[in-house]
Design brief:
The protein is 18% helix and 30% strand. It is of the alpha+beta class. The structure holds nickel (II) ion (NI).
Length: 159
């Protein structure tokens, strides 16, 4: 495993729409392992492939309940709403209050190409929305209701 460089806001890579994964091979497994390590190293709870310069529909999330690997994810249902703090490893030092769905149903594939369905709520639902947005070139800032000032930033829930 290796820690990869995280692409920062301002790089056009973060504005691109990612392509689906078609090869479930060793290269994908290495990428997922590296993304996991890079996310942990950055003290984040999620990381999307474009954030390490790979324009493919892949993200990893760990909110403290174990790693979730999502390849070719699709959010098929959302319900409710939540407001809370959010940040992003590609936008260091910037946090804001965002509005997100409270409940999300996602279908995705794992690293072997097997499809699974995940029902998520709360922080996990927020993280899925955040990472899925990265695959369409959207940053969390587009969901900010109010920016957090430096003295308000204690611990952001998602980055
Ligand atoms: Ni992010």
């Amino acid at each position: 495993m290796a820690i990869r460089n995280i692409v920062k806001e301002g790089d056009p890579i973060l504005t691109k729409v990612c392509r689906p994964v078609t090869n479930f091979d060793d290269k994908l497994a290495v990428l997922l392992d590296d993304m996991h390590e890079t996310m942990i190293n950055g003290d984040g709870v999620g990381l999307a492939a474009p954030q390490v310069g790979i324009l493919r529909r892949i993200f990893v999330i760990d909110i403290g309940e174990g790693i979730i690997e999502a390849v070719n994810p699709k959010i098929i249902k959302t319900r409710g709403r939540q407001e809370g703090s959010e940040g992003c490893l590609s936008c260091p030092g910037e946090y804001g209050i965002t509005e997100r769905p409270m409940y999300v149903t996602m279908v995705a594939q794992n690293r072997y190409g097997d499809q699974f369905t995940l029902n998520a709520e709360g922080l996990l639902a927020k993280a899925i929305c955040h990472e899925n947005d990265h695959l369409d070139g959207i940053l969390f800032k587009e969901h900010i209701i109010r920016k957090l000032e430096p003295d308000e930033i204690r611990a952001a829930e998602v980055k």
